[in-house]
Design goal:
The complex is a heterodimer of chains A (743) and B (355). Among the domains of chain A are: 260 residues, no CATH class; 78 residues; 89 residues, no CATH class. Chain A is 59% helix and 7% strand. Chain A is built from 34 helices and 10 strands. The radius of gyration of chain A is 36 Å and the shape is elongated. Chain B has 2 domains: 159 residues, Rossmann fold (3-Layer(aba) Sandwich), CATH 3.40.50.300; 131 residues. A 5-stranded parallel beta sheet of chain B has the order 4-7-10-3-11. In chain B, helix 3 packs across helix 5, helix 11 crosses helix 13 and helix 12 runs antiparallel to helix 13. The longest helix of chain B has 18 residues. Classes of the chains: A alpha/beta (743), B alpha/beta (355). Chains A and B meet through helix 14 and helix 15 of A and helix 3, helix 4 and strand 11 of B.
Chain lengths: 743, 355
């Protein structure tokens, strides 16, 4: 019996167990596994005791942009290929990968092709045809149970695979041929497998091949001539590739990325594989634990009943043991009390699972990944997949370094940490992050290695590149901030130069205004981060000067939408100037405000806002503000403009109206005096203004307005003519009650 | 008789299933679990007798329900009104014990005696406590005879009355201290309770009682065709029971009723393009069935014997507009924005406006 072909279901725990048994019984001299031959040198690592599935083989081009074209071969604990690797490592048997080299696959124009339909999971297709909804249970019922106790160990171990091989020959004979590109791909892959097989057969007497069941017939004797396969493979384009092991997760296995079949329930498969006895009861115990951790009270009695229900369901459905469907039904009816939300919890935590793989430290990482790993150890920030929050006190050296690392990784597109903005208020020396390490970051790091060998170098180079290609001023300013947060002083001059250039060329003052807040924040943070920032200060001063110069021209003749945008920008610049807290800057800004606030050609919204800002900083006293308001709210001014002015002036904080009765009286008088048709026009603006106030403020204003009315008795409303007094008297009490006035 | 019990109505199906049932039956059961599932979901008996589907919907749900009863756990059927909870419970007990009559209707005024036992006071006074003076509740009868008892609207029962079920479900016995004895449940005894999702919290079950039950949530029908099928079947059955003259099948009209019910219930038109407001009622399948039956009666007695838009319009308006103010707005909006524009719905639009 040479070779022995072990056709498996990718990621099938049943196949994995069968492969282990077959290998132990057959004791091959070499094991061939479906996978990229470039990974042969990595095989010994699979046996390392620090290696923990799920992991993936990663192949990426050694030159060029790797992100586009990296390819993965993921393995879980329950993957037959992985079990073959582990078995071989434990028994010091050589392993060779046989498949089309990754060099060829990556050189192809498109992304590595995925097998589809019956090709990717022929065993699953057979199971479906047999009326099973879970291929693993079909494997167990049909393939394995048939060969149990057939006396001879070897025959019992290899029997299932012989049967699978025969079944596949039938399946392949009755499956329509794939389309052009897919057919070529399949021919090449199988030719490559045969080439590897022939080479092994020349060298060894006992060869075992672990490959997808689909390929078994293609490797079964009689093989086509070696010359034909060589011709198929001749002259294929190649790229230079590097390979390594990267950690993987169950969630990513479930998402179906990478090669092979996406596994919908990796957690369940893993459980089946590692639990030899009482798989159902143990599973439900774990489900109960998951629910308890979330505060759902689940007792042991629940678990007992759920197990019984699962067994009863399996019996009723005529199945030898309960499968995932039965345990899920039982969990829903008993443990979750019919609540689908709780079931979702079990699905996420258990059926998919949160297992994260690990690779030994001596795995050939890309240099930058090693740098990251070293930093993680030094800074005691182990990469963990579950999100957790981290508060950093930037006055401490270690926290500062952590912050730098996270920011630099962010520059490189490795968003390990997400900055949480809402805690900024506690002081500038605090930073809050939410950390969640995802295994795909390994890939992002591979991509980043094109920029440099350490995180710092790569981030510096990347920022420089981004500054050069940035399209807008705002992009460059964002870069400046990142640069400072990530502490990349070497790239700062480049970025500032880019900023200066964009600033000078940018005629739109709005862009300049957009850029300022980030710079101001940066300057303020710079003090905490012990960065000397004269260059930045110089640039910021230049920016503010340009804003002063450009603003008066930019605020004239705006329509409603543009005015609203400009209002937000003025607010932002105002806040930024306050943040910078430099007397000369502040004074000049105030001058600008004052100059603009009385111009008649400025949109009402802006004029109102400018006056409000001046009132807030004390440039305008309340009396003058009242004068200005009464000026606007006279009959000579169009209602729309007045309403916009009011919106600009009052937006944000309603306390002003609560405390200043004379202002309120002004507004009240103007409001009641608006003619009906104009009132309809002004109403949306007013509603927008007042609806932004918190409810208590609105109520207080309302209460005060009522009292105002009480004193001058609503004289502003002229009574319409020809009212039938008698009939009016009938409704008066109700109307009064509605208005809150005493009858 | 206005309505026959399930075990009488479908006696021939049950008999055929029992005759050809060679699987193991749990003690006290008239049918094997697999045959019970067939009885509910329809199929064929061993001798070829067709079995009509009683419940149209997920097989998994019914399997879980039957398996629950087979494992001696009480079954709690949850769902919004009109999702066939009572219907399923009646047929389950008919198939399992051949008797669906051991029923307690839960109301706010249901006393403990209805769950446990009461006394014939004349005899009690004459002879003192004796077995002859005892008035058994349906649940107690089910225990002593090894049958399925049904409790309708469990959450409407007062909490203390609910909790009197605990001993019966966990110990499978009911002490009768007055007679210095007890009634022990025979094999085959079990309990099916139904409760209404919308009334959750009326009298929430105590966790002690709750954990005696396995819960199966009956959903509203998943798809249009499924729901049309349900309505058409039930209308035909009801028509026979009410001895209405045979009316030509009016699938188009039924489809229209179901469409309206589904659209308003989901707040979305079936083509998924228009958002709608949902009225306050549940608009269950059961209501759709009664609208169509009602329409059939109208068509038979007052119309030309053919179900037309005008026959169902009034019923639909009655089901949708439960709250005269807010639901009226919902209905008018639906009528003007969706119904009016739809091809071939002119007749219904006119009829609904007049209704």
């Amino acid at each position: 019996m040479n070779p022995v072909l072990l056709g498996v279901r990718h990621h099938g725990p049943g196949s994995a167990r069968a492969v282990r048994r077959a290998l132990s019984a057959y004791q091959p001299e070499v094991v061939l596994v479906e996978g990229p031959p470039e990974a042969d040198p990595l095989v010994p690592l699979a046996g390392d005791e620090d290696m923990r599935a799920p992991v993936a083989l990663l192949a990426y081009p050694a030159a060029g942009d790797p992100r586009r074209q990296a390819a993965f071969w993921p393995f879980a604990e329950f993957s037959p290929e992985w079990q073959a690797l582990r078995w071989a490592a434990a028994h010091a048997v050589p392993v060779r990968f046989v498949d089309l080299p990754a060099a060829v696959q990556l050189a192809a124009e498109d992304a590595p092709r995925q097998e589809s339909g019956v090709r990717s999971d022929p065993v699953g297709a057979l199971a479906t045809a047999a009326g099973y909804d879970d291929p693993e249970r079909w494997w167990e019922d049909v393939v394995e149970h048939r060969f149990e106790g057939s006396g001879d160990d070897l025959a019992a171990a290899l029997g299932p695979f012989a049967a699978i091989g025969e079944a596949m020959a039938e399946v392949r004979a009755h499956t329509p041929a794939p389309s052009g590109a897919e057919a070529v791909e399949e021919q090449r892959r199988e030719a490559a497998m045969r080439v590897g097989l022939r080479a092994a057969l020349r060298e060894f007497d006992r060869v075992a091949v672990v490959c997808g069941a689909w390929h078994v017939p293609a490797l079964t004797a009689p093989l086509p001539t070696a010359a034909a396969d060589a011709a198929t493979l001749r002259g294929l384009p190649k790229v230079k590739v590097a390979t390594t092991w990267v950690p993987w997760t169950h969630a990513r296995l479930a998402a179906g990325q990478g090669y092979g079949a996406g596994v919908r329930s990796p957690g369940w498969y893993h459980h089946l594989f590692v639990t030899p006895r009482d798989a159902v009861a143990r599973w439900l115990v774990r489900a109960a634990a998951v629910l308890r951790r979330d505060g759902v009270p689940v007792s042991s009695a629940h678990v007992i009943e759920a197990t019984r229900l699962a067994d009863a369901l399996a019996t009723m459905r005529g199945r030898p043991v309960p499968g995932l469907v039965e345990v899920t039904d039982a969990a829903l009816a008993v443990l979750c009390e019919g609540d689908p939300l709780r079931l979702e919890l079990i699905e996420r935590r258990l059926v998919v699972g949160e297992r994260l793989g690990r690779v030994p430290q001596r795995t050939p990482g890309v240099p930058i990944a090693r740098d990251v790993a070293a930093a993680q150890r030094r800074l005691r920030l182990p990469p963990q997949p579950l999100p957790r929050e981290l508060d950093l006190d930037l006055r401490r050296e270690i926290d500062l370094e952590r912050s730098r690392l996270l920011h630099r990784l962010g520059v490189l597109g490795v968003n390990w940490g997400v900055a949480l903005a809402h805690r900024r208020g506690r002081g500038t020396f605090w930073e809050s992050w939410r950390l969640a390490w995802q295994p795909e970051f390994a890939v992002d790091l591979v991509a980043a290695s094109a920029y440099g060998t350490t995180v710092r170098d790569a981030a510096t180079a990347r920022v420089g590149e981004q500054a050069a290609t940035a399209a807008s001023l705002a992009e460059v300013t964002a870069l400046v901030e990142r640069c400072l947060l990530a502490e990349l002083p070497e790239s700062l001059p480049t970025v500032l130069r880019a900023l200066d250039e964009r600033m000078a060329l940018d005629h739109d003052v709005a862009h300049l205004m957009d850029a300022l807040p980030a710079l101001a924040r940066t300057l303020r943070y710079g003090d905490v981060r012990r960065t000397d920032l004269p260059a930045l200060r110089h640039v910021t001063d230049g920016l503010i000067t340009r804003i002063w110069a450009g603003l008066p021209a930019a605020v004239g003749g705006l329509d409603d939408a543009a005015a609203a945008g400009m209002r937000d920008r003025i607010d932002a610049v105002h806040a930024a100037v306050a943040l910078l807290d430099q007397p000369d800057l502040t004074a000049r800004w105030h001058d600008t405000l004052a100059g603009l606030s009385t111009r008649d050609d400025v949109h009402g919204l802006l004029a109102g806002r400018l006056n409000r800002l001046m009132l807030d900083v004390g440039l305008l006293d309340v009396d003058r503000a009242r004068d200005r308001m009464s000026l606007i709210l006279t009959t000579g001014v169009p209602v729309a403009r007045a309403a916009a002015w009011i919106e600009g002036f009052l937006t944000g904080d309603g306390l002003l109206l609560v405390h200043d009765e004379r202002l309120l009286r002004l507004v009240d008088g103007w409001l009641t005096g608006i003619p009906p048709d104009a009132f309809v026009e002004a109403l949306p603006l007013l509603r927008r203004t007042f609806s932004e106030y918190p409810a208590p403020q609105r109520r207080q204003i309302g209460e005060r307005a009522v009292r105002l009315g009480g004193r001058d008795d609503g004289g502003a409303v002229a009574a319409p003519p020809d009212i039938d007094e008698e009939r009016a008297d009938l409704v008066q009490p109700t109307v009064r009650a509605l208005l809150g006035r005493r009858a | 008789m206005q309505r026959r019990h399930a075990e009488d109505e479908y006696a021939h199906e049950l008999a055929a299933l029992a005759a050809g049932d060679d699987r193991i039956r749990p003690p006290g059961w008239k049918l094997s679990p697999a045959a019970v599932v067939t009885y509910l979901l329809g199929g064929q008996a061993a001798d070829g007798t067709p079995v009509t589907p009683k419940y149209i919907g997920s097989r998994r749900l019914i399997e879980v329900a039957v398996a629950t009863l087979a494992t001696d756990r009480a079954l709690l059927l949850l769902g919004v009104p009109g999702t066939a909870k009572t219907w399923v419970s009646e047929h389950l007990s008919a198939a399992i014990s051949g008797d669906s009559t051991l029923l307690v209707q839960g109301t706010a005024g249901t006393p403990e005696e209805a769950i446990r036992y009461g006394w014939n006071y004349a005899r009690l006074l004459a002879d003192g406590p004796s077995a002859a003076a005892l008035v058994e509740s349906p649940v107690l009868r089910a225990m002593s005879e090894g049958r399925i008892a049904r409790v309708e609207e469990l959450t409407r029962l007062p909490s203390d009355v609910q909790d009197s079920l605990i001993t019966m479900l966990s110990e499978r016995t009911l002490p009768i201290p007055e007679l210095a004895g007890e009634v022990q449940a025979r094999k085959g005894f079990n309990l099916i309770a139904t409760a209404n999702d919308r009334d959750r919290g009326v009298n929430e079950l105590s966790s002690a009682l709750r954990r005696r039950f396995n819960t199966v949530v009956l959903p509203v029908p998943a798809g249009m065709d499924e729901e049309v099928d349900i309505v058409a079947r039930r209308v035909a059955e009801l028509g026979r029971a009410l001895e209405l003259p045979e009316v030509p099948p009016a699938v188009d009209e039924i489809r229209r009723v179901v469409t309206i019910f589904r659209e308003l219930r989901n707040g979305l038109t079936e083509d998924g393009r228009t958002k709608l407001k949902s009225p306050s009622g549940t608009l269950s399948t059961a209501e759709a069935i009664s609208v169509v039956t009602n329409g059939l009666a109208l068509a038979t007695h007052f119309g030309d014997g053919k179900l037309r838009a005008v026959d169902v319009a009034a019923g639909i308006v009655g089901s949708v507009v439960r709250d005269p103010v807010s639901d009226q707005v919902v209905w008018r909006e639906y009528l003007e924005t969706v119904v009016r524009e739809r091809d071939g719905w002119r007749d219904f639009y006119r009829a609904a406006r007049e209704a």
